[in-house]
């Protein structure tokens, strides 16, 4: 089957937060800028998922679903996509990954404990630590000369000793780094040696690009035997981000039982009717869609890199090995942009939810991107660009970004 990723949906008049003008203005100070920020895609979901939604809408009743086990469809998916078949008894449904991760942090650490998080940091991880009265222990990834990021093993080894929980984002958001097998084994070995729990948010795992291989933390851990919880979800994979659902895979039965008891106490053990139907179709009928989408996204990255190298080598993409978001390194031109923005505050009112770069590109390029400061104070020279739209629209945005830089 052929899938058309070149034609995207105009979401401006829908209930999309990504295209909400007030939200766009709050990030880049230009409510008419095009949305290349929050991590959801503008592609239609897989045709089979859309057909399921249409069938359910035609029925017109959205009552209680059967509370039957749904882990089998998920483990079938991980076998096909990642060559990993966790035991169904080790898998539990969660009402969204942030909910599941926050619950795990609450259950398996105590107030005042330190949670190690590699940075740049997906901001909700900071909030989970703060809201649960834990201390986020920042562990910066190593910045390579080519603009990419890598695991700093020495720093990780040092920091892990202080933490109760190691909270990884794998593949990493916002860099798009896919950790290799050796790095995963190192992380797990140190965690086991120091008796630390590893929580791995792998919401972007299914969108790893074809030229690289993602290894689930739980799969790598079969060689090590650390205490690991691996979280995965269909939300980014199939553009179902607004339907909160996912799965947690436990390596430790005692931890699993404690987690399930708390879920039962909070009455958050089963998915809603609609997401159950959509998720079932996604995991059973949509592997080809996923493969074609990953290929499309990788080709977009390659074209972006080629164009930047030719037209504006001062700007560099980060790793961009997975998903549809990555950092754009603006270090070489940051001082010029900062001077221009700060010298003309009337023209460049810095957005409340953004920073100098997001404001500059929002106003001068008409492109709304997340400012690097959203991911930590040390990343003001970056923006995160979302290329989960047609290649033509992405390249048009990139050309406008470059034009704004060349006009400095």
Could you name the key traits of this structure?
globular; 408 residues; 15 strands; single chain; four-stranded antiparallel sheet; Aspartate Aminotransferase, domain 2; alpha/beta; 14 helices; seven-stranded mixed sheet; Aspartate Aminotransferase, domain 1
General shape: globular
Quaternary class: single chain
**Number of DSSP strand runs:** 15
Q: Please report the first level of CATH classification, the CATH class of the largest domain.
A: Alpha Beta
Q: Which class of secondary structure composition applies to the elements? A: alpha/beta
Largest beta sheet, briefly?
7 strands, mixed
What is the end-to-end distance?
46 Å
Helix content: 40-55%
Looking across the biggest beta sheet, what order are the strands in? 2-10-9-8-7-3-4
- Helix tally equals 14
Q: Approximately how much beta-strand content do the residues carry?
A: 5-15%
- Please provide the ordered H/E string of secondary-structure elements: HEHHEHEHEEEHEHEHEEHHHEEHHEEEH
The CATH fourth-level homologous superfamily of the largest domain: Type I PLP-dependent aspartate aminotransferase-like (Major domain)
Under CATH, the topology of the largest domain can be stated as Aspartate Aminotransferase, domain 2
Average per-residue pLDDT, rounded, comes to 96
Radius of gyration: 21 Å
| Unreliable residue runs | none
Number of domains: 2
Characterise this structure.
The mean pLDDT is 96. This protein has 2 domains: 144 residues, Aspartate Aminotransferase, domain 1; 215 residues, Type I PLP-dependent aspartate aminotransferase-like (Major domain) (Aspartate Aminotransferase, domain 2, 3-Layer(aba) Sandwich), CATH 3.40.640. Helix content is 41%, strand content 14%. The strands form 4 sheets. A 7-stranded mixed β-sheet has the order 2-10-9-8-7-3-4, with helices on both faces. A 4-stranded antiparallel β-sheet has the order 11-12-15-14, with helices on one face. It has 408 residues and is α/β, with parallel strands linked by helices. It starts with 20 loop residues before the first helix and ends with a helix.
């Amino acid at each position: 089957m052929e899938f058309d990723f070149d034609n995207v949906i105009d979401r401006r008049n829908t209930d999309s937060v990504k295209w909400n003008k007030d939200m766009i203005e709050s990030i880049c100070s230009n409510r008419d800028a095009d949305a290349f920020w929050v991590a959801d895609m503008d592609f239609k979901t897989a045709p089979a998922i859309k057909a399921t939604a249409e069938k359910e809408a035609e029925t017109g009743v959205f009552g209680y679903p059967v509370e039957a086990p749904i882990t089998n469809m998920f483990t079938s998916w991980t076998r096909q996509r990642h060559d990993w078949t966790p035991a169904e008894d080790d898998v539990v449904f969660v009402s969204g990954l942030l909910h599941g991760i926050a619950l795990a942090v609450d259950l398996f650490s105590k107030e005042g404990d330190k949670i190690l998080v590699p940075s740049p940091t997906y901001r909700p991880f900071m909030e989970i630590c703060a809201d649960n009265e834990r201390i986020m222990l920042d562990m910066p990834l190593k910045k390579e000369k080519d603009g990419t990021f890598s695991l700093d093993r020495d720093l990780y080894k040092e920091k892990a000793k202080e933490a109760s929980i190691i909270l990884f984002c794998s593949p990493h958001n916002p860099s798009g780094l896919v950790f290799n097998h050796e790095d995963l084994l190192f992380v797990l070995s140190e965690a086991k040696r120091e008796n630390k729990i590893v929580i791995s948010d792998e919401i972007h795992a299914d969108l790893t690009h074809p030229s690289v291989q993602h290894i689930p933390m739980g799969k790598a851990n079969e060689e090590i035997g650390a205490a690991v919880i691996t979280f995965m979800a269909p939300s980014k994979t199939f553009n179902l981000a607004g339907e909160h659902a996912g799965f947690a895979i436990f390596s430790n039965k005692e931890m699993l039982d404690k987690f399930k008891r708390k879920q039962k106490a909070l009455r958050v053990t089963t998915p809603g009717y609609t997401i159950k139907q959509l998720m079932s179709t996604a995991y059973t009928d949509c592997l080809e869609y996923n493969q074609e989408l990953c290929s499309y996204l990788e080709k977009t990255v390659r074209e972006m890199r080629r164009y930047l190298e030719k037209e504006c080598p001062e700007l560099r993409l980060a790793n961009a090995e997975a998903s549809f978001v990555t950092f754009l390194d603006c270090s070489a031109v940051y001082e010029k942009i900062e001077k221009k923005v700060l010298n003309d505050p009337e023209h460049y009112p810095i957005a409340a939810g953004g920073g100098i770069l997001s404001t500059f590109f929002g106003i001068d390029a008409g492109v709304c991107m997340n400012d690097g400061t959203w991911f930590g104070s040390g990343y003001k020279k970056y923006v995160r660009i979302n290329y989960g739209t047609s290649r033509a629209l992405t390249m048009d945005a990139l050309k406008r970004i470059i034009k704004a830089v060349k006009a400095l």
